[in-house]
Each structure stands twice: as structure tokens, then as C-alpha cells.
Fold:
Amino acid sequence: MVIDDSKTIRRTAETLLKKEGCEVVTANDGFEALAKIAEFRPDIIFVDIMMPRLDGYQTCALIKQNGAFRKTPVIMLSSKDSIFDKARGRIVGSEEYLTKPFTRDDLLDAIRKFT
Structure:
């Protein structure tokens, strides 16, 4: 699953992952994602941090608080790369933090590492 308010980022990640044979579900914010996570039960979730309504930290925390999805790997995606941002991602339960612009290999490495 790819959660990002940028249509360009969603489409880019979706295209890269589909070329590798992955099934991809996208959401444009955390609220939409939470409904889709329950329906599609993704193997891994890539989530942008800066989104309207429910940001990536809040979305990750809600996913990790749900017993059914606690073990689903969550990878934070952001253009912010400070130690504080990365630490905050860890505090809410994310497994990894990828800095934009990400590459095809970044996404695939995360999938191989956590699924």
C-alpha cells in the first residue's frame, strides 16, 4: 500500500512496484488508508509523513495500535531527513524511513527486508 497526498508520488510508486509484480493499493491520506487497510490487508505500507487531515505519524500510530495490523511493516516516506523526524517515525512504530526522492531499489529493498 502506498499512502501519499501527491498523485505523482502515488503513481510513481505504484508503477515501479507493479512492474515488479506487486499488487498495489493506494490512498491519498491516512483516513482513506485506514479503511483500505482493513479491506485489503496489505503486506507492507509506505506512508508519507506530511499529509492533510491525518499525517503519516498519526496514521502509523493508529495502524500499530490495532492488534490485527500491529505486525504489518510501515515504511515512512518523506523529504524531511532530520534525526528528529526519523526518531519520531521510530517512536510511532515504523520499521524504516525512506527519504524522497526514493528509487525503485529503495522500495524493493524495503519489501525484501520486511515481508
About this structure: The two ends are 13 Å apart (CA to CA). The CA atoms of residues 53 and 101 lie 23 Å apart. The longest helix spans residues 7-19.
